């Protein structure tokens, strides 16, 4: 099992690194959105609540551009049968989840500093800010990985991924916006309630997706 | 005629009774006055939306857990429940915003209850578009069911947590600090009849949709055997 | 494989109380700091019946709304009834041919 | 391996029904029939990639194997099994090899199927015949007890077919080999046959 996941992950990283366009598109989108926002405001900082909303909107839409690619590519290139013959469906889910986590961390590592730099965000509590961004990203990835498989099975029809992800992500985004705004606003002691909740939530949703994945990915 | 059909068809009697009771028999409320009568439609509609959502989720779980295919057409049943539920959800949102306009002065204010019903509505929209995108694939039933299960299991956390994190304008039936609805006896009876009537209406519609689906399948089966 | 799945199910079940408790903890913390959006304090609904004028004649508007609702229901009922009858007839035909 | 009363429908269209056979180790089976008669579907059911609408397939090695584990002891290749364009032959072998593959084993496979010169070339630049050879290598790679080959000689030249047929002959003992084909030369490789589409 572990060796299968490693084999699969190594293969995915190699294939994706050689084509690279999914991550390029997501990053380009994030950079353009951030720059456009910054340009439009002309250097006047937004209130923290608005900054937090904008940050999560940019993260959400950049993620929507890229997170489904790992499954959609297999179906597009007709390689999904080869993948299925070579590894078990459980290993496929876990390796794709890990790949998406790596993808999301790259995305966050680019978006967040850029956003802070260009929109003059004044972070009052830096560690809680980083933790809330990370837990939010983790939840987004955990929820959308199985949805990406569903989209791939339907032929990767463009905006379908955003449509089916949004209702399940809305509460996650809401909590993340809320907690990020709190870390921007106050210097006081921070409780990690929301972040803990999101962490437990992603664990739960990952377990559930792991159980449901075979029904989505295997043909009847 | 089977007992099931007699029960389902009793909606033809109970629904008009509920409507007449709601308008003529139940007393008007103190502040809201006659406008409070919308309660006898809004509350049952909201109840049916949640019921339809849960029913389609449970049917989906059964569909996936049923490995030996002892039951057929459960995914279609879940689909019918969800599409009927979506109509009821839209009606809930409409009656709710009318009530909100009357009692709070605005049609919409992102009250937690409103948020959760909108999330349910979005889930239905997403589910229906997923199913239409999956048309003509073998896995349609299973993928749709997996999505409904995911949605049904994640939603309660937020429905039960979010109204506790934010304050609600809605009377809260779960923890009543001071905002329980105090209902008159006649109001209570009317509400009960209305809930029964709307539940019957929902079951009746889903039943008809199911029967049509079964007919479709048998007709197509015999057609393919002949040719 | 079975074992891994069982462990995962057990783990996810353990997560539920954890999520509930963190959520409630969060709520309690907010309730204590008093940072509650309480715009609805004086708008809350009190659905208590009017006892004084119980015998009062309902207004004409009420009857009009009642009429509209009944007509809508009649239309829906007729539609459902026709479909129901048609489906029942086809069901009978199919059973006859089989 | 045993199949009882197999039938498969896609949607409402029935592809085939009432298929019964059993194959033991060391035996081979050819599935023949015109295009669209369900050869590929039958092979995918036998590999555990699809489930039959009715009927049952059992795989017994030393004990009955659950369906989830069929693919662990089955080598499958077919027209729909496409390799990754961005990877080289050697990387494919490293990915598909269940056990840590020794370099020498990989090399011997590549030499046998005449791909050794192209081992570090990306599959994107392969010809269709070379791709087919790579697909066959990937199916044989883990030395599985069951081999399910769907039209294995598509796109192969005479030399390629020759290599394939001698190789199948050399590993025949102790294995179950199921081939779907319309090539009379290949039908001669098999002990028994099923004809679909009547």
How would you concisely characterize the structure shown here?
The complex is a heterotetramer of chains A (220), B (227), C (98) and D (198). Helix content of chain A is 83%, strand content 0%.
Q: Average pLDDT across residues of chain D? A: 78
The SSE order of chain D reads EEEHEEHHHEHEHE
Largest sheet of chain B: none
Can you tell me the CATH topology of chain D?
Rossmann fold
How much helical structure, as a percent, in the residues of chain B? Answer: over 70%
**Cα-atom radius of gyration of chain B:** 20 Å
Number of strands of chain B: 0
**Could you tell me the radius of gyration of chain D in angstroms?**
17 Å
User: How many domains, in number, for the residues of chain B?
Assistant: 1
Q: How would the global form of chain D be characterised?
A: globular
Biggest sheet descriptor of chain D: 5 strands, parallel
Please explain how this structure is put together:
- The complex is a heterotetramer of chains A (220), B (227), C (98) and D (198).
- Chain A is mainly alpha-helical and 220 residues long.
- Chain A has one domain.
- In chain A, 83% of the residues lie in helices and 0% in strands.
- The longest helix of chain A is centred in the middle third of the chain and has 30 residues, at 89-118.
- The two termini of chain A are 23 Å apart.
- The longest helix of chain C is centred in the last third of the chain and has 38 residues, at 60-97.
- Chain D has helices spanning 39-47, 89-96, 103-112, 128-140, 158-171, 184-187, and strands at residues 2-10, 13-22, 28-32, 54-58, 74-77, 146-150, 176-180, 192-195.
- The chains are: A mainly alpha (220), B mainly alpha (227), C mainly alpha (98), D alpha/beta (198).
- Chains in contact: A-B, A-C, A-D, B-C, B-D.
Write the layout of secondary structure elements.
The complex is a heterotetramer of chains A (220), B (227), C (98) and D (198).
Chain A: H1 2-19, H2 21-41, H3 48-66, H4 69-76, H5 80-86, H6 89-118, H7 126-153, H8 160-185, H9 193-217
Chain C: H1 2-33, H2 60-97
Chain D: E1 2-10, E2 13-22, E3 28-32, H1 39-47, E4 54-58, E5 74-77, H2 89-96, H3 103-112, H4 128-140, E6 146-150, H5 158-171, E7 176-180, H6 184-187, E8 192-195
Parallel strand pairs in D: 3-7, 3-8, 5-6, 6-7
Antiparallel strand pairs in D: 1-2, 1-4
């Amino acid at each position: 099992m572990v060796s299968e996941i490693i084999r699969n992950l190594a293969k995915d990283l190699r294939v994706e690194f050689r084509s690279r366009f999914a991550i390029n598109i997501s990053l380009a989108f994030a950079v353009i959105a951030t720059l456009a926002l910054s340009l439009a405001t002309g250097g006047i900082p937004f209130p923290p609540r608005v900054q937090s909303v904008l940050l999560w909107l940019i993260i959400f839409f950049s993620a929507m551009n890229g997170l489904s690619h790992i499954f959609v590519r297999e179906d597009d290139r007709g390689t999904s049968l080869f993948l299925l013959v070579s590894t078990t469906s459980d290993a496929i889910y876990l390796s794709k989840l890990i790949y998406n986590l790596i993808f999301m961390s790259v995305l966050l590592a680019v978006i967040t500093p850029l956003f802070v730099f260009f929109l003059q965000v004044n972070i009052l509590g830096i560690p809680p800010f980083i933790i809330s961004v990370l837990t939010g990203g983790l939840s987004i990835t955990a929820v959308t990985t199985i949805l990406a498989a569903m989209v791939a099975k339907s032929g990767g029809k463009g905006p379908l991924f955003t449509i089916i992800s949004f209702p399940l992500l809305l509460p996650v985004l809401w909590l993340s916006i809320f907690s990020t705004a709190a870390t921007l606003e106050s210097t006081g002691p921070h409780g990690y309630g929301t972040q803990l909740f999101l962490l437990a939530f992603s664990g739960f949703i990952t377990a559930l997706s792991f159980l449901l994945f075979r029904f989505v990915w295997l043909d009847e | 005629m089977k007992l099931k059909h007699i029960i389902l068809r009793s909606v033809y009697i109970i629904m008009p009774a509920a409507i007449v009771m709601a308008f003529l028999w139940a007393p008007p409320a103190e502040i809201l006055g006659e406008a409070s009568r919308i309660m006898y439609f809004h509350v049952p509609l909201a109840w049916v939306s949640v019921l339809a959502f849960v029913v389609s989720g449970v049917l989906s779980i059964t569909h996936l857990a049923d490995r030996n295919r002892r039951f057929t057409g459960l995914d279609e049943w879940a689909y019918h429940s969800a599409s009927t539920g979506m109509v009821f959800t839209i009606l809930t949102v409409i009656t709710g915003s009318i009530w909100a306009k009357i009692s709070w002065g605005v049609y919409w204010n992102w009250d937690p209850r409103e948020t959760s019903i909108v999330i349910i509505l979005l889930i239905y929209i997403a589910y229906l578009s997923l199913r239409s995108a999956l048309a003509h694939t073998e896995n349609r039933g299973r993928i749709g069911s997996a999505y409904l299960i995911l949605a049904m299991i994640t939603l309660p956390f937020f429905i039960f947590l979010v109204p506790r994190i934010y304050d609600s304008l809605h009377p809260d039936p779960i923890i009543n600090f001071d905002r329980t609805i105090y209902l008159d006896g006649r109001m209570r009876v009317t509400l009960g009849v209305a809930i029964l009537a709307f539940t019957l209406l929902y079951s009746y519609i889903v039943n008809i949709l199911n029967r049509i689906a079964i007919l479709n399948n048998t007709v197509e089966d015999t057609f393919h055997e002949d040719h | 494989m079975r074992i891994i799945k069982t462990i995962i199910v057990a783990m996810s079940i353990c997560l539920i109380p954890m999520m509930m408790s963190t959520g409630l903890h969060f709520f309690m913390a907010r309730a204590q700091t008093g940072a509650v959006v309480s715009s609805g304090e004086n708008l809350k609904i009190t659905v208590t019946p009017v006892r004084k004028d119980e015998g009062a004649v309902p207004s004409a508007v009420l009857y009009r709304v009642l009429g509209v609702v009944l007509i809508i229901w009649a239309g829906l009922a007729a539609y459902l009834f026709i479909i129901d009858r048609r489906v029942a007839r086809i069901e009978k035909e199919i059973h006859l041919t089989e | 391996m045993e199949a009882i009363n197999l039938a498969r429908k896609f949607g409402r269209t029935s592809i085939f029904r009432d298929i019964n056979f059993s194959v033991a180790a060391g035996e081979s089976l050819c599935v023949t029939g015109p295009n669209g008669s369900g050869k590929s579907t039958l092979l995918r059911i036998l590999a555990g990639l699809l489930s039959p609408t009715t009927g049952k397939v059992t795989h017994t090695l030393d004990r009955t194997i659950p369906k989830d584990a069929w693919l662990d002891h089955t080598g499958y290749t077919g027209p729909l099994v496409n390799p990754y364009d961005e990877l080289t032959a050697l990387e494919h072998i490293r990915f598909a090899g269940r056990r840590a593959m020794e370099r020498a084993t990989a090399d011997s496979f590549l030499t046998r199927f005449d791909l050794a010169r192209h081992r570090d070339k990306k599959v994107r630049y392969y010809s269709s015949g070379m791709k087919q050879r790579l697909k066959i290598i990937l199916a044989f790679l883990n030395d599985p007890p069951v081999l399910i080959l769907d039209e294995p000689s598509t796109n192969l030249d005479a030399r390629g077919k020759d290599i394939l047929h001698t190789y199948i002959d050399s590993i025949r003992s102790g294995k179950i080999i199921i081939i779907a084909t319309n090539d009379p030369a290949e039908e001669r490789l098999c002990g028994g046959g099923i004809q679909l589409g009547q």
